[in-house]
From TrEMBL:
Residues annotated as transmembrane: 29-48, 367-387
NCBIfam families per UniProt: spore_II_P (TIGR02867)
Biased composition (Basic and acidic residues): 416-440
Protein name: Stage II sporulation protein P
Start and end residues of each stretch annotated as Disordered: 414-447
Pfam families: SpoIIP
Organism (species): Natranaerobius thermophilus (strain ATCC BAA-1301 / DSM 18059 / JW/NM-WN-LF)
Keywords per UniProt: Membrane, Transmembrane, Transmembrane helix
Upper taxonomic lineage: Bacteria, Bacillati, Bacillota, Clostridia, Natranaerobiales
């Protein structure tokens, strides 16, 4: 005998199925929401992602010319198209990378920016004095009254001979090197902002973290910025005779992926030209490497490699002190012109290549992602509360028809009113014209 299910039980069972079906839909919607939010988060982090790690994790490259002569050893990442201006101002371009060897070709011998200006000013000693003095006054009055900013994107870097290890999370010897440079600049009565932030860990996010430090320094309208590092290369690579004694050389690094590259290049050349006159052999060259190095934020932002992990910290400190005097001399117009100094305006809004086109570019991009996330979140909220896709379509259709009608209604009314007035005027004009024609015909008949 078949037992009939009571009506109330049938209703309860149906409701249970409906409940389970609705619950399943909600879970599905929530799952989809999390997937979309994960996607948005991934895209958003991609927009503000850390700059790539521009240094090798271990080892170094040996750059050789066409005759296999070594011209540079560096731990910086290199790729075809990078360039190197050596101590004799000979420019090489890297054409091929083969494991740890970078092959380069000679391009040309460069006349540095500072050298060109100095030659132009050597027509007459008296005239030369007046020209240089005029440059100093112009520079100091307009652009170079701000402090020099010194910071360390890799503040854990240290020196093995002095500290026993290559990196110290709490702050490596590179901080003391930066302090020596800061003291040297302050002794010349130039204000300094020196950040002791380490920006650890030494990973792909270090330059993004140091970018925030640069943003803080930028609030003080700095005249120049120096990102102080040490290279990962053999000791001999940075060893040279400086001031009659064995010293540690400095390598200037320019990031090729940024819109200020021309101004940064001119600044680096002027620093080298000034150093070549003040302290020969101090600056070993200029490397045009992969990266941005936050140089898109200021045309006078330069990365300085002072020695390597195999040089002594004390030697690096002495070279940093000498380089500080070079920075001051360049600011005072030692090898300067007005063009680069004038480039310091509009530092925040720079757009273009590299790291998102400056701060405003990054902010704008972030806002777009936030708006997109909010819109998507609203759609997901409607989806979860709607219960079915038909309800979603109905609600969206209702929103569009209602809200847009309310917003655009007055516009259409105005337009229709104007069109109606125009039609009325046209009809009236036609009536007048027809009436005039009728009067003319009557007059002709009378005649």
């Amino acid at each position: 005998m078949r037992i009939k299910t009571p009506t109330i039980l049938k209703i309860h069972t149906a409701n249970s199925y409906d409940y389970l079906d609705h619950n399943s839909k909600v879970k599905t919607m929530i799952y989809i929401a999390f997937c979309f939010l994960f996607l948005i988060t991934s895209c958003f982090s991609g927009t503000l992602q850390a700059q790539p790690l521009y240094e090798r994790e271990e080892g170094y490259y040996t750059v050789v010319d066409e005759d296999d002569n070594t011209i540079l050893k560096t731990g910086r990442l290199l790729s075809p198209g990078n360039k190197y201006l050596n101590q004799d101002n000979e420019l090489y371009e890297i054409t091929e990378i083969s494991e740890d060897t970078a092959h380069a070709e000679f391009v040309e011998e460069i006349e540095l920016a500072g050298q060109q200006i100095e030659e132009e000013n050597q027509h007459d000693p008296l005239e030369d004095n007046f020209v240089k003095r005029d440059v100093v006054i112009t520079v100091q009055d307009e652009d170079n009254e701000g402090p020099v900013g010194i910071y360390h994107s890799h503040g854990a870097e240290s020196f093995v001979p002095s500290e026993g290890e290559e990196s110290i999370e709490e702050g490596g010897g590179i901080l003391e090197v930066g302090e020596s440079m800061a003291n040297s600049i302050e002794e010349e009565n130039v204000p300094v902002i020196w950040s002791q932030e380490t920006h650890v860990p030494h990973d792909a996010g270090a330059y993004d973290r140091s970018r925030r430090t640069v943003e803080e320094i930028m609030q003080e309208n700095p005249s120049a910025l120096i990102d102080v590092h040490r290279d990962a290369a053999p000791r001999e690579e940075y060893k040279a005779e400086i001031e009659g004694e064995e010293g540690v050389q400095v390598l200037l690094v320019i990031g090729q992926q940024q819109q200020n590259i021309q101004e940064t290049e001119e600044y680096a050349q002027r620093l080298k030209a000034t150093a070549d006159e003040m302290h020969p052999n101090l600056v070993k060259g200029i490397l045009y490497a992969e990266g941005n190095y936050n140089q898109d934020m200021h045309p006078r932002n330069i990365l300085a490699e002072i020695g390597s992990q195999e040089t002594t910290r004390e030697g690096a400190e002495e070279s940093a002190e000498l380089f500080g005097s070079v920075v001051v001399e360049e600011l005072n117009g030692g090898n300067g012109d007005d063009d680069l100094n004038g480039a310091a305006g509009g530092l925040i809004n720079g757009g273009g290549a590299g790291n998102g086109g400056g701060i405003m570019g990054r902010i704008g991009s972030s806002i777009l992602w936030i708006i997109g996330a909010v819109v998507l979140g609203g759609i997901i909220f409607v989806a979860i509360n709607a219960g079915s896709f038909d309800d979603i379509k109905r609600k969206l259709s209702q929103f569009v028809s209602t809200e847009f009608a309310n917003y655009l209604g007055p516009l259409f009314k105005t337009k229709n009113k104007n069109e109606s007035n125009s039609d009325q005027k046209t009809d009236a004009k036609d009536k007048d014209h027809n009436s005039q024609n009728l009067d003319d015909r009557v007059e002709d008949d009378d005649s």
